[in-house]
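hi! just following up on the protien thing from before. the input was this:
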Amino acid sequence: MQNAIDHLNHWITKVPEEFSRMSELEISQRPLPHKWSKKEILGHLCDSAINNLERFIKIQYEEQPFVLSPYNQDQWVALQDYQDISVEEIINLWCSLNKKIIKVISIIPTEKLEYLCDIGDNRLKTFEWLIQDYLEHMEHHLKNQVFK
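and the predicted 3d structure came back as:
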């Protein structure tokens, strides 16, 4: 878990720094009408953090295997209207959510990391895998779409 915590802490520092170097146009412009802007991608990462924070808590006490409920990512981004919110507000939300995730994962008893999660289609993964997947999803968006 320490590796995941270290990576999350790295991004909590790097994301605000990198966004501060971008213009409002660069942050808000959609590459295509149906594609998210950098602000909306960060908003999507907030939504991912919200959903995964809840999962990281529930997995520890609900019946196994814990069945992950999917969420409609496009609807979450649209209905939260990230495009028309200041980037500072989105950054603050994202940082706060990830600090809370760090707190939660830092105190997970080691034996619980082996708890099983049904990620869909009856595919079972460990809780530890899910935490790593959260981090990889976040880094994919940041490295390939936001800070490329």
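The chain has one domain: 2-146.
Residues 38-58 form the longest helix (21 residues).
cheers
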